[in-house]
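User: Please fill in residues for this 245-position structure.
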């Protein structure tokens, strides 16, 4: 992969999903015919994919990025922010990441002076169509990779009820619009969680932070500032520059 190809990928990342070959060529810069030829080659390899009339980063590259992240480094980077969020809200904070074709919780932080019942989500693989952590990440993934994750999750969590695709699509659109994913009693009728996508290396779809607790308490706190508190701590973490690996 040469510098011009890397410039194309950087151009797509900067311009977003509406980036056409002409826009990408102008941003790089390079002749439009050259940009289109190289984009077509990258599309064949699964590194980029079409999004309407434009191009976006493809599922193969997302999976390569996910496999290259060191978990210990990520934990040491995210843990202080997760602990601060747990203290600010009084709820268990979790962090989840994309790993190949699954979403995994890799970190939990509990408030030091917790009152009442706490809900600590299990580490590891999460049900993609239900869990707030999974939805926060899926909302920003290429459709092809999203479908792979959902199919793998449906086999692994076959005991959970299937969701209608249109309902999940509505959830993911909501995440894109509001920056918050919800799981209110869907996985466990007595538990609830919310999660927010976090930019990692300048893009979404790799990482999220969330909060979990008893359904009644989370629902009550959502009438106040719980979602805003989550967004605030996510924005602080992003602004710190520590996630620009």
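Assistant: Residues filled in for all 245 positions:
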């Amino acid at each position: 992969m040469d510098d011009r190809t890397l410039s194309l990928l950087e151009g797509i990342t900067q311009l977003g999903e509406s980036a056409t070959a002409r826009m990408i060529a102008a941003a790089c810069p390079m002749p439009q015919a050259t940009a289109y030829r190289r984009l077509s080659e990258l599309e064949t390899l699964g590194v980029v994919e079409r999004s309407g009339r434009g191009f976006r980063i493809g599922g193969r590259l997302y999976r390569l990025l996910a496999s290259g992240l060191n978990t210990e480094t990520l934990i040491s980077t995210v843990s202080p922010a997760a602990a601060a969020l747990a203290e600010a809200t009084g709820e268990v904070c979790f962090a989840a990441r994309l790993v190949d074709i699954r979403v995994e919780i890799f970190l939990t932080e509990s408030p030091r002076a917790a009152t009442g019942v706490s809900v600590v989500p299990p580490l590891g693989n999460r049900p993609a169509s239900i869990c707030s952590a999974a939805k926060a990440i899926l909302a920003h993934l290429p459709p092809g990779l999203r479908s792979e994750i959902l199919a793998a999750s449906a086999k692994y969590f076959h005991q959970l009820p299937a969701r209608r695709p249109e309902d999940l699509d509505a959830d993911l659109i909501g995440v894109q619009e509001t920056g918050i994913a919800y799981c209110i009693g869907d996985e466990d009728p007595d538990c609830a969680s919310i999660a927010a996508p976090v930019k990692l290396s300048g893009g979404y779809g790799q990482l999220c932070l969330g909060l979990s607790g008893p359904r009644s308490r989370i629902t009550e706190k959502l009438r106040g500032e719980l979602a805003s508190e989550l967004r605030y701590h996510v924005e602080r973490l992003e602004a710190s520059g520590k996630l620009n690996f």
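For context: Strands lie at 48-51, 54-57, 92-99, 102-109, 124-125, 181-184, 191-200, 203-214.
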